[in-house]
């Protein structure tokens, strides 16, 4: 019998959010990216668009601004329908999506930045 493997879903990522959609922001994901659920994103200061966190950047995206609540394919165009956890939430560590080249120290710094926003990263299963 074949084995079916299910990918991560919002329940795997999100462990708590404040009532009345307080934790969420609608964001524009900048073109040229295909980001998965749980991607840690930064906010590009000049455009107000989000992109995957890049600790070596100098455009604002070097700082964690939130976590995407759904996969967003912005490969060809900007996507204005992104949904991001921006404050007062708890997420599971195993469901966060990081850039391939991020170091352990950079990841810890980004987790601290999320904590300053009220987004706590906890061990999850």
Which helices and strands occur, and which strands form pairs?
Elements: H1 10-13, E1 14-17, E2 24-29, E3 33-35, E4 40-43, E5 50-52, E6 64-68, E7 72-74, E8 79-85, E9 89-92, H2 104-116, E10 119-122
Parallel strand pairs: 9-10
Antiparallel strand pairs: 1-9, 2-8, 3-7, 4-5, 4-6, 6-8
Query: Which runs of at least 5 residues are low in confidence (pLDDT < 50)?
Result: none
Based on DSSP secondary structure assignment, what is the total number of beta strands?
10
How many structural domains does the protein architecture include? 1
Order of helices and strands: HEEEEEEEEEHE
What is the topology, as strand order, of the major beta sheet? 2-8-6-4-5
Q: What portion of residues belong to β-strands?
A: 25-35%
Q: Largest sheet at a glance?
A: 5 strands, antiparallel
């Amino acid at each position: 019998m074949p084995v079916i493997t299910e990918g991560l879903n919002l329940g795997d990522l999100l462990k708590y959010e404040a009532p009345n959609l307080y934790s969420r922001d609608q964001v524009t994901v900048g073109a040229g990216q295909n980001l998965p659920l749980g991607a840690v994103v930064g906010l590009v200061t000049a455009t107000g668009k989000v992109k995957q966190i890049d600790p070596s950047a100098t455009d604002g995206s070097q700082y964690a601004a939130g976590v995407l609540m759904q996969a967003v394919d912005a490969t060809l165009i900007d996507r204005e329908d992104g949904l991001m956890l921006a404050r007062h939430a708890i997420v599971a560590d195993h469901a966060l999506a990081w850039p391939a080249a991020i170091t352990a120290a950079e990841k810890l710094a980004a987790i601290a930045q999320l904590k300053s926003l009220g987004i706590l990263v906890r061990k999850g299963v």
